Amino acid sequence: MYGSLSLYRSNCPETTEKMTNQEDMAAGEGAVEDTVPTHSGFVALIGPTNAGKSTLVNRLVGAKVSIVSHKVQTTRAIVRGIAIHDNAQIVFMDTPGIFKPRRRLDRAMVTTAWGGAKDADLIMLLIDSERGIRGDAEAILEGLKEVSQPKILVLNKIDRVRREDLLALAAAANEKIAFERTFMISAENGSGCDDLMDYLAKTLPEGPWYYPEDQISDLPMRQLAAEITREKLFLRLHQELPYSSHVETEKWEERKDGSVRIEQVIYVERESQKKIALGKSGDTIKAISTASRKELSEILEQQVHLFLFVKVRENWGDDPERFREMGLEFPR
Ligand SMILES: Nc1nc2c(ncn2[C@@H]2O[C@H](COP(=O)(O)OP(=O)(O)OP(=O)(O)O)[C@@H](O)[C@H]2O)c(=O)[nH]1
Ligand SMILES: [Mg+2]
User: Ligand 1 in contact with 104 (CB < 6 A)?
Assistant: First the structure.
């Protein structure tokens, strides 16, 4: 298994690992093995759209692996973010928010989110404490009754609500489902996150780690780069445009001088949307490109030359190939 030496918390992993029975006996009766078993597992974050799932995954992983915006339906496919806490490797599955689907893409996102829940060792229901359990959250609580894995409740955005309201919300949610535990956190400022990590590290099953110690995400760089650009687009464009667009990385060329040339295409559905995405004399696309290039250079720690193109692809939202590219099943 990868990085096996790091699986032990001892200061001297090699000796610990090789400790023989003989040495155990030499240490006298009642000697305990001084190795700490490793824990690992998959934790799915489920919740209404905009609850702060991606913000939380980034916080717990300690790096940006999933894009975040103030708009709904930002995450489209499952992103795995990998954290290490004590002797546990915790693989967080950030899922698309669950809402009432209308378009085909919506349906694929919601199906993917529920699929993520079914693949996990533990389910974390994330609720925006300010919004409470109305609408989508209520429907998710109902849906979770059909899912057999252990579940915990995480009330997020506690920086925005009064303590009494939080307690009432926790009680109301626990009345509907028997959660193993309830946590109250702020993914934004980190409050309550240590307790949550302690709990997860202890609770996940014993077993070897799934990923190399230094891996923090399973998303290929080309795809993360497309996501970063999509985030800038979500932050910059309004109304239906973010939901009608899709970004793909078409070219990735490492250059001799240590820089990288990245070409990406923003697909929109109509000519009128293309005009908006470009902006007056290309201002909008320029701003999106600058913001994305800056962040990509930081992540990649190299100079980035980013070229963005906007293309119209009518009905890309009904094209199975685009779904495959996004890592989504194509719903018939
Ligand atoms: N005040 C406050 N805002 C938060 C907190 N956590 C997340 N947010 C904000 O909530 C908004 C949505 O965050 P996301 O992480 O994109 O939410 P999400 O659940 O992944 O949303 P989808 O991917 O669209 O389902 C962003 O504007 C975040 O900055 C928090 O603890 N406190
Ligand atoms: Mg998200």
Answer: no
Q: pLDDT confidence of 48, banded at 50, 70, 90?
A: very high
- pLDDT confidence of 15, banded at 50, 70, 90? very low
Please give the distance, rounded to the nearest whole angstrom, from the Cα atom of residue 128 to the centre of ligand 1: 8
Partners of 85 in beta bridges: 88
The verdict on the CB of residue 68 being under 6 Å from ligand 1 is yes
Alpha helices by DSSP H, listed for 43-162, are 53-61, 104-118, 136-144
Provide the edge-to-edge strand list for the sheet that holds 260-268: 246-254, 260-268, 304-312
pLDDT, residue 325, reads 85
Under 8 Å CB-to-CB from 265, ≥6 apart: which residues? Answer: 247, 248, 250, 308, 309, 310, 311
CB atoms closer than 10 angstroms to residue 213: 14
Distance CA 263, CA 279 (A): 19
Q: Which of the listed residues 46, 50, 193 should we mutate to test ligand 1's pocket, taking the one with most ligand atoms within 8 A of CB?
A: 50
This prediction has a pTM of: 0.89
Alpha carbon distance 210, 4 (integer Å): 11
- Lowest-pLDDT range of 29-38, 151-160, 167-176: 29-38
For the chain, domains (ranges, CATH) are 39-203 (3.40.50.300), 221-326 (3.30.300.20)
DSSP codes of every residue in 276-331? HHH-GGGHHHHHHHHHHHHHHHHHHTS-EEEEEEEEE-TTGGG-HHHHHHHT----
User: Ligand 1 test: best mutation among 55, 95, 159, 230, most atoms within 8 Å of CB?
Assistant: 55
Q: Is the CB of 116 under 6 A from ligand 1?
A: no
Q: How far is the CA of 220 from the centre of ligand 2 (A)?
A: 18
The pLDDT tens digits of the residues spanning 224-255 come to 999 999 999 999 998 889 999 999 999 999 99
For the chain, the average pLDDT equals: 89
